[in-house]
Specification:
Elements (H helix, E strand, L loop, with lengths): L32 H8 L33 E7 L4 E6 L1 H8 L5 H4 L8 E5 L4 E5 L2 E5 L3 E5 L4 H17 L18 E4 L2 E4 H10 L3 H37 L3 H33 L1 H6 L2 H23 L5 H5 L2 H8 L1 H6 L2 H70 L13 H26 L6
Antiparallel strand pairs: 1-2, 1-6, 3-4, 4-5, 5-6, 7-8
Length: about 450
């Protein structure tokens, strides 16, 4: 800038930085081989704050020291295919990453949809919300929300009892190293099986996700059936008492009973409609086959790995074994397997029939309530008709008496006439008008009965 009268010169003052007083770090020691191995090993997957747990058959998973509870974390119970369980605390992000589900699916498991019934199929998981059972099922494990509730404990106990027995086929080929390397292998819950043998196991036993779904439907249907049985036990005596004695107390009992029946019918109807919706759509049922999709992905990875090795090396010993008639039919018939939903269809139809029977029981109770209400209304109508008849009879009698009173009022006036001086005329006159009023009453009453206005 120029040195004019209006020019300002900024002083060039430099601030000195304070000298660093940090303590120099000592050189790091050279890690040993064991330390290098431990440092390069991948960290264990974060499973949340482990609280405790147990497995089927008495096996217990030890609870580690968990970190501080994260914000928004909820209590879950994790079951694997062998029935081993543990209590964990997961937040939403952990559940989304672990199960590969969208965030909106967690709203279905929230308190807003507490009594709704939904079974959703995702790419790697199945979201189940049946009454009090809220779970996320994958091909290898199931995550149960709020497992310490009284109703959910029955579901947890059934999983512990049935999963180890139903998953016995997964222990085939325990020595994975003993199996011939020329055969394609897939992993089923920690055990590696050949593809044909794994498919045979899946054909003779339901996949893991369907085992969990079957137990959930069994627990829910048993709970609803038990509720309907209790409702029937309470309903029939109350309705019989109302039929015998129509009182305010009995009517209040029936009103409370009918409201409970309506709520229970709605809950059964929701579960039934969800199963019916799945039965009507083969694509939705096909998407629920999580284990089959997982095995197909493993087969595709094995094929892609075999093709890559074949492009680099010479003839691979695995390819002829894979191209056998049995294995080739499994690999090339994915489309046919995707359309095969017979196992799930039979499973859903069985519980659909059970829910339909439970619904019919509720409808029979409601019909009995409706019949009782009709009977009570008929009784009330009969009493109302009797009151109307009594009122009509009293009206006719009042009319006849009014005629006699009118005649007596006429002759009670202070008007002179010749009958006043006759002896004994009073008794004759009163008796005559009384007989005339009785005749009028009988005539009108007979006319009313002739018109069927008054019953006999």
């Amino acid at each position: 800038m120029g040195k004019g009268p209006f020019s300002f010169r900024r002083p060039s003052i430099r601030r000195r930085r304070p000298k660093s007083t940090a303590v120099p770090q000592s050189p790091k020691p050279i890690p040993t081989a064991g330390a290098v191995a431990s440092s390069t090993s991948p960290p264990p997957p974060s499973t949340g704050n482990l609280i405790g747990g147990g497995g089927g058959g008495g096996g217990v998973v030890a609870a580690g020291k968990g970190k501080k509870k994260a914000a928004g974390a909820r209590l879950w119970m994790r079951f694997d295919a062998m029935g081993v369980s543990e209590l964990v605390e997961y937040d939403k992000s952990t559940i989304i990453k672990r199960a590969s589900i969208p965030a909106r699916d967690l709203r279905i498991l929230g308190p807003v949809f507490s009594h709704s019934s939904t079974i959703l199929a995702r790419e790697k998981a199945m979201v189940v919300n049946l009454e009090f059972i809220k779970a996320i099922v994958t091909a290898e494990e199931v995550l149960i929300l709020d497992p310490l509730q009284q109703e959910v404990l029955q579901f947890v106990d059934q999983l512990r009892l049935q999963l180890p027995h139903k998953s016995a086929y997964k222990t085939q080929g325990a020595g994975a190293a003993d199996v011939n390397d020329s055969e394609t292998h897939v992993s089923t819950g920690g055990r590696w099986l050949p593809v044909p043998e794994a498919m045979e196991g899946l054909q003779c036993e339901l996949p893991f996700e369907f085992q969990v779904l079957e137990i959930a439907l069994e627990v829910v249907c048993s709970f609803l059936d038990k509720s309907v049985a209790e409702l029937e036990t309470d309903a029939y005596p109350v309705l019989d008492e109302l039929a015998r004695n129509v009182s305010t107390k009995n009517l209040e009992h029936v009103r409370s009973l009918k409201s409970n029946l309506t709520r229970l019918l709605a809950r059964v109807q929701k579960v039934r409609d969800e199963i019916e919706h799945l039965l009507d759509d083969n694509e939705d049922m096909s998407n629920l086959y999580l284990t089959r999709k997982w095995i197909q992905n493993q087969q595709l990875e094995a094929l892609s790995g075999g093709a890559a090795s074949n492009s680099i090396t010479t003839i691979s010993p695995r390819l002829p074994r894979l191209s056998s008639n049995r294995s080739a039919s499994l690999v090339s018939s994915h489309n046919l397997d995707d359309d095969d939903v017979e196992d799930l269809e039979m499973l859903l139809e069985a519980y659909f029939m059970q829910l339909d029977g439970t619904r019919n029981k509720i409808l029979s109770v409601r019909e009995y309530i409706d019949d009782t209400e009709d009977y009570v209304n008929i009784q009330l109508d009969n009493q109302r008709n009797e009151l109307i008849q009594l009122q009509l009879t009293l009206t006719i009698a009042s009319f006849a008496i009014a005629v006699e009173t009118l005649i007596a009022g006429w002759f009670g006036m202070n008007i002179p006439f010749t009958w006043n001086n006759k002896e004994g005329i009073f008794e004759i006159f009163v008796g005559g008008i009384t007989v005339g009023c009785v005749l009028i009453f009988l005539l009108i009453l007979g006319y009313a009965r002739w018109k069927k206005l008054i019953g006999s």
